[in-house]
Amino acid sequence: MIDAEHYFTWVNEEGINIYIAEIDGVAVSTCATIQNGNTASLEFVATLEQYRRRKAAALLSSYAIEELLNNGAETVTLSACGNSVHLYKGLGFKKYFNNIIMRYEL
To answer: Which residue has the higher pLDDT, 19 or 95?
Structure first.
């Protein structure tokens, strides 16, 4: 999970919002949005492992997306892989293209 130290440099940036969900006073899920005019992206969605599948990320992401749309965003994108794809499909995202990431090893 990305912590406050990693988010700190973004706090004062325009067009970037950071969200945290708590359960019983414990920060369990986080996400961020970046908006530039009418386009935006959902970023850094993360949930502590022991709190996954409790809808914290879905509710938090839905709230963040709603704020983007209310702020004039017409398109919201994200990158997803692994199990997170199910979360994003549940939020209404549709697959647009595959991105192949490759790594060179010595």
So the answer is: 19
